[in-house]
Amino acid sequence: MQLTGNTAGSITTTISLQAGPRRAAAAVLVVQPDPDADAGFVGRAGELAQLLAVLAPRTLSRDVLVSVGAVPVVGTVVVSAVGGAPGVGKTALAWAAARAAAVRGWFAGGVVFVDLHGYDPDPADQVWPAQLYAGLLRGMGVPPNQLPVTADEQATAYHQVLAHLAGIDRAVLVVLDNVADPAQVLPLLPVGTSTHRVLITSRDTLGELPGARLVELTVLAPAAAVELLELGLQRRRPGDGQVVADSASAGRLVELCGRLPLAVQIVAALAADEPDRPLAELADELADERGRLRALDYGPRWAVRAAFDLSHRRLDPALKRLFRLLAAVPGPDVSLSVAAVVADQPELEVRARLRALCRAHLLEQQPSQPGQPARWRMHDLIRLYAWEHLAEDERTVGFTRVLTYYRHTADLAERRFTALPAHDVPAGFDTPQQALAWVLGERAGLVAAVVQAAEIHPDEAIGLSADLVPILDRARLLADWVTAATAAVQASRHTPRRDLAATAWNSLGNALQGVRRFEEAISAHEQARDISREVGNRHGEGTAGNNLGIAHEECAQPDRAHRAWVQAVMSSSRWGTTRGQPWSGSGWPIWTGRHRPGPSARIRDNPLYHVPSVSRTRCITYPAAAAGACVRRGADCVIHQVSRKSHSLPSTHRRALSFPFTKPQPQSSQGPMFSVP
Fold first, then answer.
1. What is the DSSP letter of 16?
2. CB neighbours of 602 closer than 8 A, spacing ≥ 6?
3. Rounded Cα–Cα distance for residues 23 and 409 (Å)
4. Bridge-partner residues for 595, per DSSP?
5. Handedness of CA 280, 284, 287, 290 (dihedral sign)
6. How many CB atoms lie within 10 A of CB 560?
7. Judging by DSSP bridges, how do beta strands 375-377 and 364-365 pair with one another?
8. What CA–CA distance (Å, rounded) separates 327 from 399?
9. 9 — alpha (psi -120 to 50), left (phi > 0) or beta?
């Protein structure tokens, strides 16, 4: 802006007024020793000890250093940077460390604390070094009437005072909170001395800071989060006993908060405002994901969403897009390959953006074993925040991309895992172990994809669930199998394909048998048998009947088991054989050697042993992963040659030893070859 006016007659003077920062100076606080100031600081004992170990002055005696877990630090300047997600408690930790250092008398030159407002929405509110020098000099004891006038002179004086204090062993601790840009702090770092300490907090990983010791904060431990909730209530309402009286609801509340300290403190304030409202009711309100972020709001400057906004708005458009799309990925975490699929971009570009989101602490990389692919996850509340920013078409397209990838790759994994020796195998996995490792790595996302796709992509959900069965069974991940199979049954209600419904019910029955819920398994297998009969699928009817018999046997119902097995034989006999081979009750082609000694007692006890035309050879069903094995039970030897889709029978069905087979015979016009006893 220019102001023009006349002075001294005809002389015109132009004065240029440059727009400057809104904050002419920043508030610099001098931290005073107060042993009781951090009585409510909980859950960060390990991180606080780690910080104090770095901040401890080198002039301390060896005994004192050992008492705080510190070691002497040699270097030009000691900088500690505390990083973490919005609301994780970085500022609280920095204050606690500053007060603890002041109480210990480590910094005779002073402990000063300043908020640089690096993440404020308006850049004009951010604090830069030129606005800090005067306040820092006053905090270090320089009288106001001796302060230089210009910023350059103040900067020179600042470093001269630091050098003078270092020379007389009067250490200074400078705490710089909410730093968004290394340029905000680099000019403030002491030069040429290891006496002073600088403690910085930031939502970003400030890797540009020279020699900084990084301390990463994560969410609180469950017990510490509950303790923080109780302290928050006690501060506002001394004597409040809600947490003690209803510890289960308190634990549920902090988990719904993701154990994020900011969210837990907001919940404490909300609960204190309504002392007659049970914690369980507040937990029920937060359980609704659609309104959780709205509920975690206690005013314009104390809200979880507002805290996330400050970090989100700093992302460039490409990072914002990936951040949103990651919320469309089912499951708690994401691999590089899935992130590239949902973003529809090359893995090299996506990896760089994942790293950038980690530096912004909107994403965190999960610990992994050597040789395993990296995985990333979002905090639950950050994921909800990203989901809110995801447009409806992005949600649909993103999930469909991931489901298509999962369906294709899981099919390849299943085919490779169940392939028989000397048979052709699909491209994609070199060994069964690779197929197994991929499914186990993506397991949570795969199961979540089945659940999420049940209504909108039912056929794909049932197919994906079926592809997972061999590996979930082999790895004994039975709870996941039950979850996926249950979702597949739900999906069967949304597809006109009744054959898929039979597959889903049979898989659920097998999964329920694996977790020894045999009564429920019987109902599931009966559904599978009836639907298969309805659509004329004799093979499926025989398979379901065989499994039904095993479930009855587990429930100590031998008569019903034998009846189910006989019916299964009858169904499979109508289905026929393959290439003239004898067939098992489940309908899969096998060939078998005859037992030479007399039949075992188990066979003789089976009523089918005495039925005419029934072979005296035992038949045992195995999952396809064990196909080709020779299974010896007493004098009986059975060698299987099972089709790759035989994985619908779990390993628990190996005990189905009472199921005989017959050689192929022409169908009689007089009815089935067996009569049901």
1. E
2. 618, 657, 658
3. 56
4. none
5. negative
6. 16
7. antiparallel
8. 9
9. left
Distance CA 337, CA 351 (A): 9
Query: Could you tell me which residues are beta bridge partners of residue 14?
Result: 4
At 438, which amino acid appears?
Answer: W
- Residue 103 and residue 107: Cα distance in Å, rounded? 9
Residue 673, H or E segment: none
Q: Residue 564 CA to chain centroid, in angstroms?
A: 44
CB atoms < 10 A from the CB of 596, how many? 8
Q: Which residue has the tokens 């298509």?
A: 404
Alpha-helical runs (H) found in 56-188: 62-67, 90-103, 133-139, 151-167
**Contact assessment for residue 505 and residue 469, using Cβ atoms and an 8 Å cutoff:** no
Report the pLDDT averaged over residues 2-31: 47
Per residue in 37-91, pLDDT (tens digit) is 666 688 888 889 888 888 887 655 344 333 434 433 444 457 788 888 889 999 9
* Domains of the chain: residue spans and CATH: 28-205 (3.40.50.300), 222-305 (no CATH), 314-390 (1.10.10.10)
As a whole number of angstroms, the distance between CA 332 and CA 448 comes to 9
Q: How far are the Cα atoms of 92, 306, 364, 383 from residue 262, in angstroms, in the given order?
A: 10, 11, 18, 16
At 668, give phi and psi (nearest 5°): -90, 140
Predicted structure pTM score: 0.74
Residue 272 pLDDT greater than 70, yes or no: yes
- Reported residue count of the chain is 677
Q: How far is Cα 413 from Cα 464, in angstroms, rounded to an integer?
A: 11
Residue whose token pair is 């990651």? 326
Kind of pairing between the strands at 172-177 and 197-202? parallel
Burial class of 229 by CB neighbour count within 10 A (0 to 12, 13 to 18, 19+)? buried
**Mean pLDDT for the stretch of residues 481-510:** 95
pLDDT tens digits, 124-140: 888 899 999 999 999 88
Q: Which residue has the tokens 């169904």?
A: 571
- Give 525-581 as a DSSP string: HHHHHHHHHHTT-HHHHHHHHHHHHHHHHHTT-HHHHHHHHHHHHHHHHHH--STT-
3-class secondary-structure state, position 388: helix
| Of 600, 582, 601, 599, nearest in space to 591 by CA | 582
Asked if 554 contacts 522 with a C-beta cutoff of 8 angstroms, the reply is: no
Q: Cα separations (Å) of 617 from 560, 593, 635, 656, 663?
A: 22, 8, 11, 13, 11
246/224 Cα distance (integer angstroms)? 16
* Nearest residue to 168 (alpha-carbon basis) of 150, 133, 193: 193
CA distance 442 to 334: 8
Mean pLDDT of 597-624: 34
Are 2 and 71 in contact, with CB atoms under 8 Å apart? no
